[in-house]
Amino acid sequence: MLRLLTTILRFLGMLGTSHHLPLGHQSPAIPVVEVQGFLEPARFFNDFVIPGKPVVFKGAAREFPAFSKWSDEYFLSLEGSEEWKVVYELGKKETREGGQGAISFSEYIRRYQNEDLYCVTGLPKYLRDDIPVYHSIDCPFVLSELMDDLVMWFSSGGTKSVWHFDDYENINCLIQGKKELILANRSEAELGHFLEDQAYSKVDVEAVDLERFPGFADITYFNATIEEGDCVYIPTFWSHTVKSWGRNIAINAWWEIYKTPISCPPNTATHTSWRNIKMLSDSDLGYQGRAGDSRYRKSGLSVRSDRWR
Known about the structure:
Layout (H helix, E strand, L loop, with lengths): L1 H10 L18 E2 L2 E3 L4 H9 L5 E4 L6 H5 L2 H6 L6 E7 L9 E5 H7 L5 E6 L17 H7 E9 L13 E16 L36 E7 L3 E4 L4 E17 L30 E2 L22
Parallel strand pairs: 1-9, 2-3
Antiparallel strand pairs: 3-10, 4-5, 4-6, 4-12, 6-7, 7-11, 8-9, 8-10, 8-11
């Protein structure tokens, strides 16, 4: 119905042209459902994961230790920062064609405010005590059998991702800054002009060329704007792009697709930190020799490309 109304209004000239507008502005976006705090695991899986519906958890991360602790000064004060390697990307507007590198976390902290860099890396294990397990997935079966990776997204703001989808379930918690997510249902993936055998599109998310990419005029968009302390669930195979403002730190948890109701009464929740959870594909580089050492695990430099082929 919304798509039909948009088409009629555009035909009548009441919406004007949507040519070369930012992605998501081609038609009115539907706000993603918001709830206060995390939901109980059983309700979260039954109401959102199994049907594949995004949801914003307002204020869910405000009680995390990281929310009050994670300043640059705090990071630099930690002994591990001098020698623990992290992955960074060259360029805050993602193209999937830019370079990557691995440097010590402390070097990244000293450079990121003045350079066009974006840290996309497995969350260093010495920081994982600052992030509790997200309550909506704090269930023994999920934590022991399904957890895949824990990733830090850290920049000075101004990042823009490509239009892409993930083949993992995802809760992304924003510790600092602001993010806007534009999403589309997995049922509309054929409209997203994805490259053959790839999980991303070459469309310019800042100025969509509808002559080259006409499918974007027909997508029903969803919008989730999250502030620091909010978390968002992005269902597997939902297309999306993300942009950020201000010093920006987010931690996302990826887990394997599981579309079966789970039994996880509230009293079984473990409430542990992420340090104690074994990941199936942990992309944290860890200690790879002293800062400046060129040795690092090759797979660790493919947090995006291996995940989103």
